Amino acid sequence: MLNSLKIAGRYLQFLLTARTKYYIHSPFVYDFCESVLSDRRRFYAFADIIGLRSHLELDTREIAITDYGAGSSFNKSSTRKIQDLNQKVSTPDRDGKLLFRIVDRYKPQNVLELGTCLGVGTMYLARACAGKVWTIEGSENLADLAAANFDMMQQENIVQRVGSFESQLSPCLEEMQHVDLVFFDGNHREKATMQYFETCLQYAHEHSIFIFDDIYWSEGMMKAWAAIKADARVSLSLDLFHLGLCFFHKGKSKEDFKLYMF
């Protein structure tokens, strides 16, 4: 409850400084607002994923999960209903659709997701991606459920890796060779987030996109986001409150924006 009140206060502060596309002079950011944030088209893939959500909503089975991160309400080892995981931990519909539109607009071929959970967010990424989506999950039971969901959805461009990010991230990146987009959605701790950022940067290029979930979730995540957007290698940051995006365009003046997402 206390953390929810803190986040609500941070959101009110965010609203005081956030801007709409009508106050944006950067052509790239204006296009992002027009082509991604303001796009209200109902893509074909959304209906399929809504069907997956509905399927998970009815699943009352309980599973034991292991959580290596700090971004969930669960203990390190606990038992929860699948329908509760779907409601409380899976990527929200609004964020999932945004991820889909980002991939659809910028056409990344090598996509990496840190934190698979039930695979709902992964599906949004994979449905829009013409290449491959690599996803890492620490909990074997969650990874098994996600794999079953991918099979049910007949999604064949997803590559799963199971284990802690510390053990799986570097080998996964070496196999990928380069990353066009990374979605950081697990272990919401300052130190861990910075480590993953630095590791992924070794495989990034000037057209890569890094997306961070829950950048206002805790003091640690706020510090991590502040350090990331201040990094000299980041040319552009977009703060959407619930998500933070980083771009690495070379030869561009450094810019930071806070944007409303309606």
List the helices and strands and how they pair.
Layout: H1 2-17, H2 27-37, H3 44-57, E1 62-66, E2 77-81, H4 82-88, H5 93-106, E3 110-114, H6 120-128, E4 132-137, H7 140-152, E5 158-162, H8 165-176, E6 181-184, H9 190-201, E7 209-213, H10 219-230, E8 236-239, E9 243-247, E10 255-258
Parallel strand pairs: 3-4, 3-6, 4-5, 6-7, 8-10
Antiparallel strand pairs: 1-2, 7-9, 8-9
Helix pairs in contact: 3-6, 5-6, 9-10
Briefly, what is this?
With 262 residues, the protein is of the alpha/beta class. The chain is built from 10 helices and 10 strands.
Question: Which spans have pLDDT < 50 for at least 5 consecutive residues?
Answer: 71-75
- Give the tally of β-strands: 10
Terminal Cα span: 25 Å
Examine the coordinates and then state which fold CATH places here, giving the name of the CATH topology: Rossmann fold
Could you characterize what this model shows?
The chain is α/β, with parallel strands linked by helices. The chain has a single domain (2-44, 91-258), classed as Rossmann fold (3-Layer(aba) Sandwich). The chain is 46% helix and 18% strand. It has ten helices and ten strands. It has helices at residues 2-17, 27-37, 44-57, 82-88, 93-106, 120-128, 140-152, 165-176, 190-201, 219-230, and strands at residues 62-66, 77-81, 110-114, 132-137, 158-162, 181-184, 209-213, 236-239, 243-247, 255-258. The strands form two sheets. The protein has an eight-stranded mixed beta sheet with strand order 5-4-3-6-7-9-8-10, sandwiched between helices. A two-stranded antiparallel ribbon has the order 1-2. Helix 3 runs antiparallel to helix 6 (120-128), helix 5 (93-106) packs parallel to helix 6 and helix 9 runs parallel beside helix 10. The longest helix is centred in the N-terminal third of the chain and has 16 residues, at 2-17. It is globular. The protein starts with a helix and ends with a strand.
